[in-house]
Amino acid sequence: MKTPQIPKRTIQSRYSLSLTALSLALVSLGGCGGGSSGGGGSGGGITIDTLPPTLQSPSSSLAIDNDKKTLSVKLSENISPSSLVKDRISVFKDGSDTPLSIDSVSSSGNIITITLANPISSAGKYYVKFEKWAFSDISGNRNEPLTTELDTITGEGGGNENNPPSETPSIALVGGGSLTNDNTPSISVSGGVEGYTVNIYEGGSK
């Protein structure tokens, strides 16, 4: 005896919704509803964010504090602090393939803060590189690869192009009263910045 075949039932939802996100960052959907009179209401809205975060402005996205250890990168939208992956974030000096050591990364709002393990001590241009999925925005959209534009740093004790070092020269006594008959003595001076000129004067005159 054959087992009777039970016809399949096709269940269709009463409502259907189809969204296509092309170049739109935000899509707002108006709610619908009705009051006791049966009329339509404005209802609430749903905001859908579909685009990955990017640099707010490549030309001004990177800033460096006076301590030469703290770098700040501005993004196009707020970042989820728990999404940060330090191993996918690197800081390089222009012309070098060796990344600088990073102590920690954090975020607040749309700013990612990178703290280096050591202050930058040599002058040059530096940039920050974010690999894919190094962070995500608060909607969960993960980033695509990003690289900040180069920022010039004069070295420890100096500043960057937005915070130039002081133009006031430093004057110090060299030798401490010691005597030598060497016509070409070696003189060591600490605290200078790479690229600065050191002048030596006789008898304290200048």
Task: Characterize the biggest β-sheet.
Answer: 4 strands, antiparallel
Order of helices and strands: EEEEEEEEEEEE
Strand order of the largest sheet: 5-6-9-8
Topology, number of strands: 12
Shape: elongated
Identify the notable features of this structure and list them briefly:
single chain, four-stranded antiparallel β-sheet, 0% helix, 206 residues, 12 strands, mainly beta
Q: How do the strands and helices of this protein lay out in sequence?
A:
Elements: E1 26-30, E2 33-34, E3 40-41, E4 45-49, E5 62-64, E6 70-74, E7 89-93, E8 102-108, E9 111-116, E10 124-130, E11 146-147, E12 151-153
Antiparallel strand pairs: 1-4, 2-3, 5-6, 6-9, 7-10, 8-9, 10-11, 10-12
Detailed description of the structure:
- The protein has 206 residues and is mainly beta.
- It contains no helices and 12 strands.
- It has strands spanning 26-30, 33-34, 40-41, 45-49, 62-64, 70-74, 89-93, 102-108, 111-116, 124-130, 146-147, 151-153.
- The strands form 4 sheets. A 4-stranded antiparallel β-sheet has the order 5-6-9-8, with no helix packed on it. Strands 7, 10, 11 and 12 form a 4-stranded antiparallel β-sheet that branches. Strands 1-4 form a two-stranded antiparallel ribbon.
- A hairpin with a 2-residue loop joins strand 8 and strand 9.
- The termini are far apart.
- The model is unreliable at 10-42 and 156-174 (pLDDT under 50).
